[in-house]
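Renewal narrative, Specific Aim 1. Our central claim is that a sequence can be written position by position from structural information alone. The example that follows is taken directly from our test logs and has not been curated for this report. It begins with the structure tokens describing the chain, in the order in which they were read.
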């Protein structure tokens, strides 16, 4: 069993979180966070893979899930979902299959031609995916499967993401935690070394709260900016100010079914929230 499983058990009920995921695995190898539905999808399947990978656990019936992801990569599939499927295949040890399917990305995403995702479709964060979000996910997937953008593509991506520079961070009307991390990750992955951003520190809540916010000096904290802020601190080789308080925040987010919600208020569990909660705990555990 994975050592992380034992370490994270000190903070939350990891076994319940695993049961929450396992009970939502379907015969086709895919997952759906609403267990009674057979509408399996790439998003939930991707986060199931990420949870097992995070906890250093063997993924169940991975051959079925590999088949599910390969079949999901179609011309009509949204570019973010294609990128998730490619990364998921690599994480399951099917990197060659992912590379064989990677060409389909360029039908929707071709930075050399100024196409930063055609027919964007679904999104992780914003309802409809943004070109920046698509750029982040494609860069992330290509990095995982070992594909490199050529120099012209890299320059085009850099020029595109730098358009979101906004003060000490990145965003459209104002810098946000999500966009700041997505830009910095993209630049770092492509080999650029942008200056460190103080944005993540400015969004950290200690005292009575814990967690991080999307914009500086605001309330309340939510799970998604907490996840992206911790990723940002890690990227910049920085440490959180109050890791114990952030652990407290995450502990409050676990629902009775074992999954995690996004805020201190009532909310439903999903796989995305569950992975992010466990990933934040894994990061904070390094400083406790």
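The sequence written for that structure reads:
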């Amino acid at each position: 069993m994975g050592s992380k499983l034992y370490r994270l058990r000190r903070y939350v009920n990891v076994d319940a979180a695993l049961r929450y995921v396992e009970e939502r695995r379907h015969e086709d190898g895919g997952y759906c966070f609403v267990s009674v539905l057979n509408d399996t999808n790439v998003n939930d399947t991707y986060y199931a893979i990420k949870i097992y990978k995070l906890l250093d656990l063997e993924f169940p019936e991975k051959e079925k899930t590999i088949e599910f992801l390969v079949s999901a990569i179609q011309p009509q599939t949204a570019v973010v979902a294609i990128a998730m499927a490619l990364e998921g295949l690599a994480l399951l040890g099917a990197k060659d299959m992912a590379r064989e399917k990677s060409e389909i990305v360029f039908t929707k995403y071709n930075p050399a031609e100024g196409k930063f995702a055609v027919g964007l479709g679904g999104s992780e964060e914003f309802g409809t995916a943004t070109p920046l979000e698509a750029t982040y996910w494609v860069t992330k997937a290509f990095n995982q499967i070992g594909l490199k953008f050529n120099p012209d593509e890299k320059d085009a991506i850099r020029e595109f993401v730098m358009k979101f520079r906004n003060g000490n961070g990145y965003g459209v009307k104002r810098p946000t935690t999500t966009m700041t991390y997505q830009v910095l990750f993209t630049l770092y992955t492509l080999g650029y070394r942008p200056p460190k951003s103080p944005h993540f520190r400015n969004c950290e809540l200690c005292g009575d709260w814990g967690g991080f916010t999307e914009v500086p000096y605001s309330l309340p904290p939510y799970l998604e900016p907490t996840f992206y802020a911790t990723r940002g601190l890690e990227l910049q080789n920085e440490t959180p100010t109050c890791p114990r308080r952030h652990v407290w925040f995450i502990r409050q987010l676990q629902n009775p079914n074992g999954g995690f919600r996004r805020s201190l208020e009532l909310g439903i569990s999903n796989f995305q929230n569950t992975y992010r909660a466990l990933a934040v705990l894994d990061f904070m555990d390094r400083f406790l």
